[in-house]
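anyone seen this seq b4? input:
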Amino acid sequence: MSAPARPRGTGFPLAPLAAVAALGGAVVAARFTAAPYANLDSHAFESLARALLDGRGFVYREPMLGTLDLYAFRSPVYAAFLALGLRLGGIPAALALQGAIAGVAAALVGAIGARLAGRRAGLIAFALALLWPASWVFAGQILSETLYAVLAVTAVWLGLEAAERRSAARAVLCGLACALALLARPPGVALLLALVGWLSWRYRRGAVVCGLVALVAWAPWPVRNARHLHAFVPLLTSGGINAWAGNGEAPVSEGWVLMSRHTGLGEVGLDRMFWRLALAEARREPARVARRMAAKAVAYLVPREPGRIRWFHGAALLFALGALLVPAARARLTLPALVWLAHAAVTVPLVVGDRYRLPTEWVVALAAGLGIDALLALRGARRAAAAPNG
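predicted toks r here
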């Protein structure tokens, strides 16, 4: 089946824009938005990264859980990334590295926009992604969302490249990016499924290559987990507490207190305990849980947080919705929209907030860029039609 024609020869200056954005992003994250411990999870990520640097592997302990070793509670890929930053120069270097890759991601969003709708659309999408307030708030924190967002954008760009060029090599790189994203944050499974599904339509061989490479690259993680935890743990063991806290009335802090009282269950046992509690609550109060799910779905679309994050996202969303009203722009946004929807399908049932929404906000920036470009094109066409024949 053929897809809508995509602009060729856009001349988008990816390399120079990526270099400039990386340099500027490093400075912004390390000097202006740096708040490395604004979230309590940041201490855990740092502990895991330092354990890796000390040669102890991907294992650490939470202060509230005593001597319980946690082998799969936090992202291994982000821990390795953070360990690299710490090795290069401590927390400031880690934040600078995080800001640099956030800048590169903005350039890649622009490159995707240029490939889908032309150079002007790409430049607009790049500008929006670069100015996106939430990107720089979280680039200055020790959290995994920035790295995951960068990997997601990279995977989509590589997927588009693989389909356009019929390139198995780019499909291999796409699969590797998907595997890294999967091990950076569990919603990466949505990214992988969306890309493989889209590639099956555009470039079937690429879909097979991407999926197989991702599978092979991911496989050592559950094998390692089985050796340490004596159970099949495909991703992380923190899903249970997130499902329980995201759909219940109690704050997550109460979940940690509950964990501290049942450390004898072990890491896997604690995860299963929270899944059982979450499912029991859903059976007991289905109407309330359904209302909570609906509220989270709305929050995934429209930020509830006050301030510039909300108004910037809201303004971009209006232009993105405008793009969806233009048939050509809507057709070109098929892959990004699939990624956004798939991510929503796995995020909304758990926890939604500005932190968890960040990994797909680049889709809104991209769609807004295409929407603004479509409006400019429409305005130009009307002016040309109204101009007197010369």
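The chain has a mean pLDDT of 94. The chain is about 75% helix and 0% strand. kinda curious what u guys think
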